[in-house]
Amino acid sequence: MREKKQILIADDEANLRRVLGAQLQRDGYDVLMAEDGEQALATLAENHVDVVISDLRMPKLDGMQLLKRITASQPELPVIIITAHGTVDTAVEALKLGAFDYVTKPFDRTEFKNVVDKASRTAELRQREGEMAERGLIGQSPAMLSIYSVIEKVADTPSTVLITGESGTGKELIARALHEKSSRHDKPFIRVNCAAIPRDLIESELFGYEKGAFTGAVTSKPGRFELADGGTLFLDEIGEIPVNMQVKLLRAIQEQEFERVGGIKTIEVDVRLIAATNRDLAQEIKEQRFREDLYYRLNVVQMRLPPLRERQGDIPLLVEHFVKRFRERLKKSRVVGVGDAAMEVLLAHPWPGNIRELENVIERAMLFCDGERIDVGDLPPDLRVTPPSSPGSHAAVASARRAEIDEDDDEDLGEEPTASGEIGLKELVREAAAKVERELIVRALQQTGGNVTHTARLLKISRKSLQTKMKELGLREARED
Ligand SMILES: Nc1ncnc2c1ncn2[C@@H]1O[C@H](COP(=O)(O)OP(=O)(O)OP(=O)(O)O)[C@@H](O)[C@H]1O
Ligand SMILES: [Mg+2]
Question: What average pLDDT does the chain have?
């Protein structure tokens, strides 16, 4: 990774370039300069740039055109627009086109620095996210972004990582990403599923055996530790490993040496260890099923993968990702996405099986889908109705009430005309409120098994207005009461 972030300044005023450039260098950035938009594009083609700062009025290619070209070719690259005082309209226009932010001349030094620092942090996050997506790791929620930054920090260290998380949250995928991002990536990644190996075979699986060590050992065989030499050993479902094996494992990890079963020679290896479990190891320790010393040895860095219900915001991205994947695999090129109503159902489901469950649901829905978009009817029936005890339903009702209040406040704002017909705050608020409203109604409907009367009571609105709203939002009544 680069030490310093590189910033491109595009401005036709030599003096401004010089002053800004000097300031950015003092703030710890590397700086590239361009006199016009064309030069800026040429510089971008040849250099890695983290942030662009561009004036609007420039010869050849102006700032707005430059912005358009950048958002089309490198949408992850943040562009900060420089505007003269009193040209807020153009600044707003630039933001709509995808500019990261704008600064007005004359510059306030601190404000300028803040905007650039923020853009550079954003650039880093976006680059990292892009890189993770290439590895098949999808998600932009704060929880996933912080997982990415831990991967970045620990991937290329020898430290043991313990990945915890419910079933289907992506533990194996993360383990592979850690390996791929380390300098061991061209060495083996060996996975041992501790749950799948019979108890009395674990030792010989892990450490190998010598000829004649037990009946049937007609040749000698290296174990997984040896196979992983120089690379990464991934001990999946570590919580399932029998206590008597845990002592041997601890020694092998600590000393990086062991003996094969039936062997006397000590074998040394260089192995990076990653372990994963969906059990609560602290509880296992209390119940004496897991050794505390092994736990501390494994738990040098812990990565807790959030369940999908804690990062609902990632659902649309994941859905898009899986639709793309199964379009090819299932030869369903006609299907382009998921309809709004079906997406609401997906957003409201609690996903006890996490991403694996979502993946399976999308695969199944693609098979059933005859149109261009997956419809509610293509989803498995048990997804369309969630059992009444679904988590978050009380919160849903509470925020439903809040949403109603917000709507009233919205009315009190009055009709403020917005500058030159831009999309105003009011409209944005209305759109956001409608989205929240829809989500809450879907959730409440699921909670009551589609019973409109009960749903209306739950949401504290009349049955009639619920029906009107459902009609407006294109929600069908699942069942008449
Ligand atoms: N962030 C993600 N982006 C895209 N796909 C993901 C993500 N996380 C997991 N998946 C997919 O979900 C499925 C389950 O992931 P994985 O096998 O890594 O989960 P796990 O936590 O190891 O589950 P288990 O505890 O059941 O073994 C895989 O097909 C994986 O590709
Ligand atoms: Mg797994």
Answer: 85
Q: How confident is the model at residue 469 (pLDDT cuts 50, 70, 90)?
A: confident
- The amino acid at 112: F
**Cα 438 to Cα 430: distance, rounded to the nearest angstrom:** 12
For 381-423, the pLDDT digits (tens) are 888 764 444 444 433 433 333 333 333 333 333 333 444 445 6
Closest CA to 56 of 118, 14, 13: 13
CA-closest residue to ligand 1 atom 24: 167
Measured over the CA atoms of residue 298, residue 302, residue 307 and residue 308, the dihedral's sign is negative
Among 134, 172, 146, 151, smallest CA distance to 1 is for 151
Ligand 1 pocket test, candidate residues 355, 358, 360, 363, most atoms within 8 A of CB: 355
Greater pLDDT, 383 or 68: 68
pLDDT tens per residue, range 77-118? 999 998 876 677 888 888 888 999 988 888 888 888 999 999
DSSP symbols for 442-453: HHHHHHTTTBHH
Contact 148, 198 (CB under 8 A): no
Q: Which fold has domain 308-384?
A: Helicase, Ruva Protein; domain 3 (1.10.8)
The one-character DSSP state at 479 is: B
Pocket around ligand 1: residues whose beta carbon is below 6 Å from it? 136-139, 165, 167-173, 278, 318, 321, 355-356, 359
Q: How far is the CA of 283 from the centre of ligand 1 (A)?
A: 24
* Domain 6-130 of CATH type 3.40.190.80: no
Long-range contacts for 403-409 (Cβ within 8 Å, ≥24 apart)? 403/433, 403/436, 403/437, 403/440, 404/461, 406/433, 407/433
Task: Evaluate whether the domain defined by 142-304 bears CATH number 3.40.50.300.
Answer: yes
